[in-house]
Amino acid sequence: MSTPRLPRYDAVSRLFDRQDYTYLPLKKDHASRPIWINPENGHFILEAFSPIADQAQDFLTAIAEPVSRPAHIHEYRLTPYSLYAAVSVGLETNDIIDVLNRLSKVPVPESVAKLIRECTLSYGKVKLVLKQNRYYVESQHPSILQRLLKDDVIRGARVLDSGDGNSGNSFLQNKAPTADGLKIPGTGKKAQGQDAEMFNTLIELDKDDEVGEDESEDVHSFEIVSAQVENVRKRCNQLDLPMLEEYDFRNDTFNPDLEIDLKPITVIRPYQEKSLSKMFGNGRARSGIIVLPCGAGKTLVGITAACTVKKSTLVLCTSSVSVMQWKQQFLMWSNIKESRIAVFTADQKERFSGDAGIVISTYSMVANTRQRSYESAKMMEFIRSREWGFLLLDEVHVVPAQMFRQVISTVATHAKLGLTATLVREDEKIDDLNFLIGPKLYEANWMDLALQGHIATVQCAEVWCEMTPEFYSEYLRETSRKRALLYAMNPRKVQACQYLIRYHEGRGDKIIVFSDNVYALREYALLLKKPFIYGGTGQTERMNILHQFQHNPALNTMFLSKVGDTSIDLPEATCLIQISSHYGSRRQEAQRLGRILRAKRRNDEGFNAFFYSLVSKDTQEMYYSTKRQQFLIDQGYAFKVITHLEGMDDMENLVYRDKASRLDYLHTVLMASERRRMPRWRTTTLARRAAGSLQSLSGGDSMAYMEYERPKAKKDVQHPLFKKYKKKRGAA
Ligand SMILES: Nc1ncnc2c1ncn2[C@@H]1O[C@H](COP(=O)(O)OP(=O)(O)OP(=O)(O)O)[C@@H](O)[C@H]1O
């Protein structure tokens, strides 16, 4: 091996310190290649302005985790999970290294190639397939099955007389099913064609050799006892041979078919098609997670997947409001008969007619292990006693891993699809999803969808509001609990809110003002004479306000607590103002932005939606605000900082203009805090209490909404390859 060249030292070298990679030999034609590879940490930098950036982006999203994707330069990170996902959508070790080499300005560093080889050689080689209600461990590589059968646990789980004429001494040999006859657009030949095209352009692969490989080769398998599936899965993970889960739904004659198709008028969008092609690319249903921005139509993706599988489907959502929305969307997009859809919530316990159907419920209803009403217990028996073709899991990022385990062990299902907008990766619970549901199959780029007009273009701004001297001196004196109250109620912030509402109402916008703090929500709304909705608002009043907001031109602003973060589809809204928020939740920030991404007017010429975050200057809120924005910044949003709102101080009827009224107001705020007239509202406490009260009002009990500090990794749930990888990184 040749010795590595040393960095070239020049005038700017000191700025790069250990990140000086000028020693890496640039290829002659590097200018036409779009990727830089960091040999030390497996990060890729993509020049998003390159003519082949689109193809490169497709490829990088398939093999790596997007870290940050602003307009011109994108950053991706290679991880064992991302490589696991790459293999699960059909990419092979050599393809990955070859394509990377084609796209890279420098030869693929050996450290990176080694990681790819280590993580992918064994991944995807073993599949768990449920055929006619029997579980098979399947592989195209007999040697791998032999290796598995040397393991006591796996050998013990094997069915020795499978009853199909096979003695169990030799592997059952059969043909892998072909992808023909698959109906959803983009998952059949066309999607494979697109993939093939990309590969051909990039690596000039021989199509016959590579693309159709899976369809022509023999596969080998052995049957395992269904009660041992979980143990075998665990054991395979420990042996660095994780099993991919696939459902051969077209050959499943055991489970009755469900009559469901997309309506002819339903046209799915290209990115929805692409995400589904990752799931159904080889004619079977792969379990995994699809990540699409808020408002990009995850519901239709889930419905199209259900229309493809055409077997009994269980849909789980976070609240009873979502349950009703899913039902309505199934009826809107597909031709399913209403009698075939059943709803299972605290208020409704229906069953579908016929032998196949859809049940829509909440995670908490299905995971609940407490004493249940007679009706609920019967409904659970109905769910438990049958085999489900497809399990659709909505908003997987807010559901604790324990709840998933409960659900997954309760429901016998062949394929699982998780849907989410923000897969926050450093949370251990999110990591668990990879193995509880499956790998991430697809993640869309927010900016691309905005450019194509599928979601709105949003101008984001952080408005810095000076604390008034009275509030600030109180702030400096107080404990952190009261501090949070003071920066939320800062009179300059109230004024900014008043000003922005007036300005945007004047432009014809419909405005939602968000506050996590119910006390602040009420006070602001009452002062500015606008309606507000929070957990305690009755259903009739809530519906009335939402209806007025949508249809009454005289009502253009409403205040919403965190009950409005999800499950509220208000395409009329074009402007968001956030006055108080969870202290560091990037996820919540993204979900709030999601409320305006679906703006009806998004395709009007020059249309922009607006997202303002009001922050009290020189307080802790500034730190939390910066932290919250990180996810959106990584998606390419730029937050402008506004330090002065032009004309605000001269505005007619500006609240708290004089010192006396501000002192009065301060007194009221402090008194309110003392008397505990409001919910205890230190942010962490509020979050915990809200999980018990506000969410239960909307049927979302037990949802985890807070973002947690990264907990210590639990040894037993961590994939060994990941451990290995971490160890190596630590040692490096
Ligand atoms: N292919 C399509 N054609 C027309 N309209 C679509 C299509 N896909 C989605 N929509 C519309 O886009 C809007 C947003 O869809 P949906 O509510 O499923 O988004 P979402 O991704 O679930 O958002 P969130 O994460 O905020 O819940 C809906 O009004 C839906 O009807």
* Beta-strand content bin: 15-25%
Q: Can you tell me the residue ranges where pLDDT is under 50 for at least 5 consecutive residues?
A: 164-216, 677-732
Name the CATH architecture of the largest domain: 3-Layer(aba) Sandwich
Overall spatial form:
globular
Overall mean pLDDT stands at 78
Report the top-level CATH class of the largest domain.
Answer: Alpha Beta
Whole-number radius of gyration? 27 Å
Distance between the termini: 20 Å
Strand-pairing-aware structural class: alpha/beta
Ligand catalogue: adenosine-5'-triphosphate
CATH topology type of the largest domain: Rossmann fold
> CATH superfamily of the largest domain, please?
P-loop containing nucleotide triphosphate hydrolases
Strand order of the largest sheet: 13-14-12-15-16-11-17
Helix run count: 30
Largest sheet: 7 strands, parallel
Task: Classify the helix fraction into a percent range.
Answer: 40-55%
Task: Map the helices and strands.
Layout (H helix, E strand, L loop, with lengths): L12 H4 L18 E3 L5 E5 L5 H11 L1 E4 L4 E5 L2 H9 L4 H11 L6 H11 L5 E6 L2 E6 L2 H8 L2 H6 L14 E4 L13 H15 L3 H4 L2 H4 L1 E7 L4 H10 L4 E5 L22 H11 L4 E2 L1 E4 L6 H12 L3 E5 L2 H14 L7 E4 L13 E5 H5 L6 H12 L1 E7 L7 H10 L1 E9 L7 H9 L3 E4 L2 H6 L6 E8 L3 H9 L2 H10 L1 H16 L4 E5 L2 H11 L3 E2 L5 H13 L5 E4 L14 E6 L5 H12 L11 E8 L3 H15 L4 E4 L16 H17 L7 H10 L1 H4 L22 H12 L1
Parallel strand pairs: 5-9, 11-16, 11-17, 12-14, 12-15, 13-14, 15-16, 18-23, 18-24, 19-21, 19-22, 20-21, 22-23
Antiparallel strand pairs: 1-2, 2-4, 3-4, 5-6, 6-8, 7-8, 9-10
Helix pairs in contact: 3-5, 4-5, 12-13, 17-18, 20-21, 21-27, 25-26
The chain binds adenosine-5'-triphosphate.
